[in-house]
Amino acid sequence: MARVALVTYDPGGEPTVDQDLAVLARALCDAGADAAVVHWDDPDAGWAGFDLALIRSTWDYSRRSAEFVAWAERCAKLTRLLNPAPVVRWNTDKRYLGDLAAAGVPVVPTRYLAPGDPAELPGGHDFVVKPTAGAGARYAARYAPREHDRALRQLARMHAEGLTAMVQPYLARIDAHGERALQFFGGRLLHASRKGAVLERGTPFDAAKTAHPGLEVWEPTAAERAVAEKALAAVPGGAEAVLYARVDLVDGDDGQPVVMELELVEPNLFLFLHPGSLGAVVDAILEAAARPAR
To answer: Model-level pTM?
Structure first.
């Protein structure tokens, strides 16, 4: 019997916001596994007793990214961790977009402003400011050119907290065509979804935002699949290094898809939207859990 830890966050007495967690745990148990839901920062978790620790919804990690990466490296010494610790380390810092661009993957143009860097902001078009370590649009905001002073205040706040900022053009086609998420699991395309634009003008960067507005089933185009597969090929260790991945795409100014984010740590699987994908996910997890350790 495979022992699988589904690794999540501690909701602190509140209901978890992971709609898929209980469903996935039950499906694994029904398939003959011993599946347990475990908080990543539980000091009493016995990671060595599991055949596989599967990172699922560690959605508080971005506020404690150094601690989370250190946990991943410790856990990986005790059991099989997926996705693996080197991928976690690389993907928790969105400066990986620069690595993708260097590998020829079309990405949203991005500049990085670390604490102490000159606060140079675009003019002539809307732009986005967000942190290199973030999730759920935390500390992300959209600005018009006339709103530089507001954007500078955000930069000052982020830099005071030691955060590096990303500055990107706001790609206006997202307002009409949304953002597409292509989900891969076990080395193949699992399903795809589309959601509406998250960032609206005037919304404060520290305000709560709806992470997946208007989520719906999507049939990806050939161009979207090609860009997603190119991004996966550029992952350290190649696409075969990861069990799961979500590639978030938007349209560039020329209408062609570009990578907004490559989610390799704790992407929402949206199984509640794609219930038919549950069996394939369970099969891939059980196969990974049964794989001999290297």
So the answer is: 0.93
Tokens of 73: 């490296």
**Whole-angstrom distance, CA of residue 42 vs CA of residue 79:** 16
Cβ count within 10 A of residue 217: 11
Q: How far apart are CA 21 and CA 185, in angstroms?
A: 16
Residue 294 pLDDT more than 60?
A: no
Task: Write out pLDDT tens, residues 86-124.
Answer: 999 999 999 999 999 999 999 999 999 999 998 889 888
pLDDT at residue 213, rounded to an integer:
82
| DSSP letter string, the chain | --EEEEEE---TTSPPS-TTHHHHHHHHHHTT-EEEEEETT-TT--GGG-SEEEEEE-TTGGGGHHHHHHHHHHHHTTSEEES-HHHHHHHTSTTHHHHHHHTT--B---EEE-TTS------SS-EEEEESS-STTTT-EEE-GGGHHHHHHHHHHHHHTTPPEEEEE--TTHHHH-EEEEEEETTEEEEEEEE-----TT--TTS---SSTT-EE----HHHHHHHHHHHHTSTT-GGG-SEEEEEEEE-TTS-EEEEEEE-SS----TTT-GGGHHHHHHHHHHHHHSPP-
Specify the amino acid at residue 273.
L
What is the radius of gyration, based on Cα positions, of the chain?
19
Tokens of 213: 């507005």
Asked if 252 and 106 touch (Cβ cutoff 8 Å), the reply is yes
Strands 3-8 and 34-39: parallel
pLDDT in tens, 161-180: 899 999 999 999 999 999 99
Is a pLDDT exceeding 80 seen at residue 138?
Answer: no
Is residue 269 predicted with pLDDT exceeding 90? Answer: yes
Query: Which pLDDT value is given to residue 111?
Result: 94
Would you say residue 37 has pLDDT above 90? yes
